[in-house]
UniProtKB/TrEMBL annotation:
Coiled coil: none
Keyword rRNA processing: no
Gene3D superfamilies named in the record: SIR2/SIRT2 'Small Domain, TPP-binding domain
Keyword Nucleotide-binding on entry: no
Top EC class for this record: transferase
Lineage: Bacteria, Pseudomonadati, Pseudomonadota, Gammaproteobacteria, Alteromonadales
Keyword entries, A-Z: NAD, Transferase
Species of origin: Pseudoalteromonas lipolytica
Deacetylase sirtuin-type domain sequence ranges: 1-239
Entry EC no(s): 2.3.1.286
Name of the protein: protein acetyllysine N-acetyltransferase
Length: 239
């Protein structure tokens, strides 16, 4: 059976990384002056790159040395699309998973959306925390507080005011959804476009789905099974 797994922040919880909408999640902490919904935008990167990069640095720097957990290892040989940007599925050895929202351990040249660019390792370790804002602007090649297209660098993450492009392998992701005999959603709140896209395809194709979450979001689908458990409990049950 060709099973497609689509994962969200619940998968990385066992690695000590907060879920976005939980009590200690990234969506609740923000920065001193902006909410996360304001921070994670292309507009913020362009207009206030020092705040934008510092927020992403604190998100990533805190967790960049965390390792994959049992769930990531179980998924390492699976057909996988993840919403997570922590890169832990790659660390676990999955060489062909789709990071549909990007990976925070990588960056791209700052480009117009849709342009063909490559992602490569981001030099977060070169950032000097004693002079954080200046150092971040230097590392991402931003001068005069304003990033320049095709010259500056941008974290490889899909922002709220951006759209899915081939940089994020969107066509391949859609094809995997179409080809799947079953789709399993693990640790996701169904609050992003990619999960809605997968649900729509599953409905149109008559593809059975499973929803794995301690408090699963109930979805409109004629053939759905709910697994009220954590991602870790699920993979342990699978064996």
């Amino acid at each position: 059976m060709n099973t497609l797994y689509i994962t969200g922040a619940g998968v990385s919880a066992a690695s000590g990384i907060p879920t976005f909408r939980g009590e200690d999640g990234f969506w609740t902490i923000g920065s001193k002056n902006y909410t996360p919904m304001e921070m994670a935008t292309r507009a913020m990167y362009q207009n206030n790159p020092r705040e934008f990069l510092a927020w992403y640095y604190h998100r990533f720097a805190t967790y960049r040395h965390h390792g994959p957990n049992e769930v990531h290892h179980w998924l390492s040989d699976k057909n996988l699309i993840t919403q997570n940007i922590d890169g832990l599925d790659g660390k676990a050895g999955n060489t062909d998973y789709i990071a549909i929202h990007g990976r925070l351990d990588q960056m791209t040249v700052f480009h117009n959306q849709g342009d063909e660019v490559m992602a490569f390792n981001a030099p977060w370790d070169k950032v000097n925390e004693d002079n954080l804002h200046h150092s971040l602007l230097e590392v991402f090649n931003i001068s005069n507080e304003s990033p320049i297209v095709n010259q500056s660098f941008k974290p490889y993450v899909l922002l709220f005011d951006e759209y899915y492009t081939e940089l994020y392998r969107i066509s391949e992701a859609q094809q995997r959804m179409l080809d799947a005999n079953k789709i399993v959603f693990i640790g996701t709140s169904f609050s992003v476009n990619i999960t809605q896209m997968a649900l729509n395809i599953a409905r149109s194709q008559g593809t059975p789905i499973e929803v794995v979450d301690p408090e699963p979001t109930h979805v409109f689908h004629p053939n759905v099974t709910y697994k009220k458990m954590t991602a870790l409990e699920y993979v342990q049950q699978q064996g």
